[in-house]
Write a structure and sequence with these properties.
4 copies of one chain form a homotetramer. Chain A is mainly α. Chain A has 2 domains: 2-124, Four Helix Bundle (Hemerythrin (Met), subunit A) (Up-down Bundle); 136-240, Helix Hairpins (Orthogonal Bundle), CATH 1.10.287.70. Helices cover 68% and strands 0% of the residues of chain A. Chain A has helices spanning 2-12, 17-40, 43-74, 78-83, 85-92, 95-99, 119-123, 127-142, 144-169, 178-189, 202-218, 220-238. In chain A, helix 1 packs across helix 2, helix 9 (144-169) crosses helix 10 and helix 9 (144-169) packs antiparallel against helix 11. The two termini of chain A are 51 Å apart. At the A-C interface, helix 2, helix 8, helix 9, helix 10 and helix 12 of A face helix 9, helix 10, helix 11 and helix 12 of C.
C-alpha cells in the first residue's frame, strides 16, 4: 500500500514538503487550542465568550482525535506508536475534553497539549537542540544517585526543622501542624520565602535563620554535582584522541596527521 | 551461642532472607509512626482521633524500645552499638514519648525517627547511594575551611548591615532591635525575602538593594567552592593510572614509559 | 576636509585630549539627564520642581539631538553609523521626549539613555572590561542551544503546574485564571516568592512544595551549563601550545616532538 | 627598651603564653561588648537595664581606648599601625560611643567591633583559614573585571525594567516613582521577592515574569565566573610538576623519583 507509506511520511516525518506543512499546521493548532483553554479560564472572558471558546475547544479536540486515530491507522506497528512517548502525550492531549463531559472543570488539563509542542524541535530540524537536550538528560541521569542523596537530606532537614518549629512557635503564628510547618521549612530552605507563614518568637527566628543559611549554602551541592558532570562530559567529548600504529602513543589531537612522538604518519 | 549470632545477623545485617524481612518491617513501622505523629499535630484530627493516635504512638514506642534493648542484648560489644551513630539515633527515636509524660508536647520530636530511615539505603543494598553520599561528604569535608571563612564573612555582613538598618530605619518599620534587624539581613542576604520586615525609608531601600545584590552575587562563592572540589575529585578518580609490575606503584601517568618510583620500564 | 576628520576623531574616538574631554562631558550629561528623569517621576518633587525638570529634560534632549545629527554629519559612511548598535541607542535616547509631546508619560523611557553609558568602557580605555564582556558573551553564545532547551523545559513546567494549581486551588485563593496561576508558578519556580498568591488547600501546598524543590534543584542546570562553558574556554585559552617553525601550525601539545601536520621535528 | 619589645610581642603576637592569653581576653571582651550593644537596642531590655548596659558600654569603650593608645605607644612605626587595616578597625570600634555623646543613637555602630574578631583566626593559629580566605580573595580579585561587567549589566537591566514597570503599572500599585520601581526590579531580579511591591496589571505581571526568569538564569553567570576561577587556581596549585635534567621532560608528578620518559633519576 504505497499511499499508506506516503501518508505515514507526511504525518510522522518532516523530510517532504507536505510533511513539513502538516507539522507546521499541527503546531499552530496546538498553540491556538492552548490559548483557547487559557482564555476560557479567565472569568470575565468566560462569561462573555464562553460559547465560542467551548466550540473552539471541541473543534480542536475532535481535530486532534481524528489525527490520533489516523496516526494509529497508518502506523504499521500500531502498539509501538500507542505506547511510545508521543503516542501517550497525543492521547492525554484529547482526553480532558471528554472527561469534562462528566466532571466539570477538568478540560483545563488540556494545557498538557504543550508537551505536543516538543515536535517543534523536529520540525525546525533543530538537531542541535535535540543534541543539547540529550546532553543535559545524560548528565542528569549520570548524577541521579547523588541528586537522590541530596533530596533525601533536604527531606530529612525539612521534616525535623518543621517539627522543631511547630514545638517552638506554638499554634498561634501559622505553624498550625507539623505538615504545615514542613511546608514552611520547604518555603524557607528553597529560599522562596512567601511570607505567608513566618516565625514570631525570638527562638523561632533564630532557628529560621539557621534554615535560611543552610538553604543558601546547600544549593551549592546540586549545582556542584551537575556542573562537575557537565564539565566531565565536555572533557570526554573533546578528548577524541587518535592512536599511532607505529609507536602506540594514543594521545594525538583529532586533526593530527603525524604522530607527535615518533613522527610517523597516522 | 549460635542463636545469638544468628539473631545478630537478622537484626543488624541484610544478607539473609530473615534479615531483609526484619528491616523492611522496621522501615514500614518507622514510616507509619512518623505519619501518626504528623496526623496527631493537626488540631481537627487530634480532636477526633486523638486517643487512637496516642495508642498507636505508644504501640510504636514500646515496639522500638523492645527492639532497642534487644539490639543491645545481642550485640557483643554493647557499648560500641550504644555509642554508634545508629545507636544514638535509635535511642533518640524513643525518648520523646517518655519525656512527653512529664512535658506535654515534646512527643512531636518523634519525627527524629526519620533519621532511622537512613537504614533504607542499607536494605536496598544501594551501594551506589552510599558511594554517592560518602563522595559528597568528602567534598564538603575538604572544603570545610573555605566554607567556614565564607560563613564568617556572611555573619559579619549581616551583623553590620543589620545594625546600620536599625539606625537608618528607626523603630517604626519592623526594625525593632539590632537582633531583629540582623534577622532581616539574613532573610534578605539569603534571598529568602519573607517580606514581614521591609525598609520604608529611601536610604533603607538603597542599603537593602546593596544587601540583595551582595546576596545574589556571593552565593557564587560556596557554589564555586563545592564545584571546584567535586570537579577535582572526579578528575582524580577518573584519571586512569598505570601500574608498575616491579614495585606495584599504581600512580603513573598514562604516557609514562618508566616507573617513577623504581625506574624500571613499565 | 581635514577639519571633518579631526572632528570625527574627537566625537567618535578617545585617543586625543579633546576626544577624551568630549566623552567625559557626554557621560556626565547622560548621567545628569537620567537623574532628571528619575527625580521627575517622584510625585512630590514633580509638583514642586516640575517646571525646572521639564526644562532640564528638554535641554538635554536638544543637546543630544544636536549631537546625534552632528555624528551623522561627520560620519563618512552615514548609514553605517545610523544602523550601528550605538547609532540606534543614540536615536532611542532622544525619541521619548518628542513622543511625550503627543503621549504624556512616555518621556520616562528616557532611562534607555543608560545604554549610552556603555561608552564609559571606551573612555576609560578599559580593554580588560571589553575583553571580559566579550568573553562572557561568547560563553553565553556557545551555550545558547542548551539554555533554549532549559527555558523550554521551564516554560512547560510552569504552564502545566499553573493549570494543575488552578484546578486544585479553585478560584478563591488568588489562582483566578490559568495565566494568573502560571504567573504564580513562575514566581515559585524561580524562588522569588512574592507571597501575593499562595496556595491554601493541603493538596495545593503539596504541589507548591514540589514546584519549589524543583525550582531549587534545576537552577543547577543553567549554572552548570555556563560554568562548564567558561571552564572549557579558560582551559583552551591557557593551554600553551607549541608552534611548528616549518608549517606555522600553532596547536601542538606541550609534549609533542614532531609537528602533527607536516611531521617535521619541532 | 627591652620591656617595650616584650609588651609588643604580647599585644601584637600570639607566640608567647602571655600573648595568647591577652588575645583570648580581648576576643571575649569584644564579644561581650557586642552583646551589650545588641541587648541595649531591644526596647524592653533598654527600659529595665538601660543604666547597667550604658555603664558596660562605657567600660568596654574606655578599655578599648586604653588598648588602642597602648598599641600606638608600643609600636615602633606608629603610623604603620594607625593606617593599617587593623589600626583603622580598632579606631572605628571605639569612636561610636564618643560620637553618641553628641548624636544620640550612633553608639549602635559599635557592632563594627565584630570586624575586630578577625583576630580570632590569628589566635587559633588557624593558618588553614587564612590560606582559605586568601585563596578566595585571590579568585575574587582575578574575576573582578568580569564581575564588574556582570554588575553593570544587572544595573542596566534594573533601571530599564524599573522605568518600564513604572510606565505600565501606573502609580496605584506601589510603583510610585522610577527609583521605587528600580528597587522593585532589584528585589525581583535577585529572587528576594519581599512582595511589598507587586504588579497588578496583566502586562506588568508578564514583564515581571520576564525579570524573574532573567534573574533566575543570569545568577549562573557570577557562579560560573567564580567557579571557573577556583577550578583553574586549583588545577594550577596541583600542577607542581618536576623537570628531568636528562631529557628535559617537564611533566613529572611531585612524588616522582625517576623520569617517566628516559628512566634517569631526577
Amino acid at each position: 500500500m504505497n499511499w499508506k507509506k506516503r501518508l505515514y511520511d507526511i504525518v510522522f516525518k518532516t523530510d517532504t514538503r507536505a510533511g513539513k506543512l502538516f507539522d507546521v499546521v499541527l503546531v499552530i493548532s496546538i498553540i491556538l487550542s492552548i490559548i483557547v483553554v487559557m482564555l476560557d479560564s479567565i472569568a470575565t472572558i468566560h462569561q462573555e465568550h464562553g460559547k465560542i471558546l467551548l466550540t473552539a475547544e471541541w473543534f480542536f479536540t475532535i481535530l486532534f482525535t481524528i489525527e490520533y486515530l489516523f496516526r494509529i491507522y497508518i502506523s504499521k506497528k500500531k502498539f509501538n506508536y500507542v505506547l511510545s512517548f508521543y503516542g501517550i502525550i497525543d492521547l492525554l492531549a484529547i482526553l480532558p475534553t471528554y472527561i469534562s463531559l462528566f466532571f466539570a472543570g477538568y478540560h483545563y488539563l488540556l494545557v498538557i497539549r504543550i508537551l505536543r509542542l516538543l515536535r517543534i524541535f523536529r520540525i525546525l530540524k533543530l538537531y542541535r537542540f535535540i543534541g543539547a537536550s540529550s546532553y543535559l538528560m545524560e548528565s542528569l541521569k549520570a548524577s541521579r544517585h547523588k541528586i537522590a542523596v541530596f533530596l533525601s537530606a533536604v527531606m530529612a532537614i525539612v521534616v525535623i526543622m518543621g517539627a522543631a518549629m511547630y514545638l517552638i512557635e506554638g499554634q498561634e503564628s501559622g505553624f498550625k501542624s507539623i505538615p504545615e510547618s514542613i511546608y514552611w521549612a520547604i518555603i524557607t530552605l528553597t529560599t522562596v520565602g512567601y511570607g505567608d507563614i513566618t516565625p514570631v518568637t525570638p527562638l523561632g527566628k533564630a532557628l529560621a535563620s539557621v534554615v535560611m543559611i543552610l538553604g543558601y549554602s546547600i544549593i551549592a551541592v546540586p549545582t556542584g554535582i551537575i556542573t562537575a558532570e557537565l564539565t566531565r562530559k565536555k572533557d570526554k567529548d573533546e578528548r577524541d584522541r587518535k592512536i599511532c600504529n607505529e609507536c602506540g602513543c594514543n594521545d594525538h589531537d583529532k586533526d593530527a596527521s603525524y604522530c607527535k612522538v615518533c613522527g610517523k604518519e597516522i
